[in-house]
Design a protein that fits this description.
The chain is of the alpha/beta class. The chain has eleven helices and ten strands. The chain has helices spanning 20-33, 48-52, 63-67, 97-102, 110-121, 137-145, 157-176, 196-209, 222-226, 234-237, 242-257, and strands at residues 2-4, 7-11, 38-42, 78-79, 85-88, 126-130, 148-154, 182-191, 213-219, 261-263.
């Protein structure tokens, strides 16, 4: 028998344009192909993860009503066109959370509390949070709700500053007792391995963060950029392209780092009984 637990992973970087949403939807897609069940929670009012998974944003269908206590979070879960992937979509009204949540004493724990009902149900292996590219209340509350944070970053020196900011946030949350979140990993995205700059940055990040850096790197790929305009993750849009291959490799590495099922060790095999003595002749 296997006991299932749900892992909440935030994919976050306050710097925009680093492949955050692309990483969320393609990680979900690749995990779904290996029979993992995934809930994508789109927390960016731009709703790019929502549209990239083939859904159309709708007013009133997002985490917003649940955060305000006006709806059950389970009622916000929408099926996607893809097996094993469900979505809590986003909408432009989600931007209002920045004001609404900031007034509350529980502003850091509100997202965690709302998602707890889903975690307790143990329906999903993973809940992936697509965080907005900012340092606002919605992002900080989302980080505090997670078990781990994945930081996608480009192989550029300015991206190192964003990584340092994320480290400070994690340390502050944990020191305040608001969460026990950890940096789950760093994913290098939009990598052009032919440039010296990219190699220098990658080497520097690996030197400082060691095993926290995923071995898989996501290359620059035209098909990966095209896929969202068709409402599809590239893993489904063009399974044979370099981007899709990279995200499948990343998903395998991610799942190994973040197991969600804990198997009960099988009983120790007993020594076979000694054969009974023959009492009659047998014929083949």
């Amino acid at each position: 028998m296997a006991e299932k637990t749900t892992r909440v992973i935030a994919v976050a970087n306050q710097k925009g344009g680093v492949g955050k949403t692309t990483t969320v939807v393609n990680l979900a897609a690749a995990l779904s192909k290996t029979r993992h069940t995934v809930l994508v929670v789109d927390l960016d009012p731009q709703a790019n993860a929502t549209s990239s998974l083939g859904l159309t944003p709708q007013e009133g269908i997002s985490l917003y009503p649940a955060l305000l206590g006006e709806a059950e979070v389970a009622d916000m879960i929408q099926p996607s066109p893809y097996e094993n992937i469900n979505v809590i979509p986003s909408e432009v009204n989600l931007a209002g959370c920045e004001i609404e949540i900031a007034r509350r004493d529980d502003h850091l724990s509100v997202v965690r509390n709302v998602l707890q009902q889903i975690r307790d149900a143990r329906v999903f292996d993973y809940i992936l949070l697509d965080c907005p590219p900012s340092l606002g209340i919605l992002m900080t509350a989302s980080l505090a709700a997670a078990d781990g944070i994945i930081v996608p970053m480009q192989a550029e020196y300015l991206a190192l500053e964003g990584l340092s900011t994320m480290q400070r946030l994690i340390a502050q949350y944990n020191a305040s007792g608001a969460s026990n979140v950890k940096l789950n990993g760093i994913l290098m995205t939009m990598v052009n391995s032919n440039t010296t700059l990219a190699q220098d940055v990658i080497n520097e990040v690996r030197e400082h963060f060691g095993d926290l850096v995923f071995q898989t790197m996501i290359p620059r790929n035209v098909r990966t950029s095209e896929a969202p305009s068709y409402g599809q993750p590239v893993v489904f849009y063009d399974p044979s392209c370099r981007g899709a291959e990279a995200y499948r490799a990343f998903a395998k590495e991610f799942a190994a780092r973040n197991p969600t099922r804990f198997e009960v060790p099988p009983a120790q095999p007993q020594a076979p009984a000694a054969p009974a003595p023959d009492t009659a002749q047998t014929q083949d």
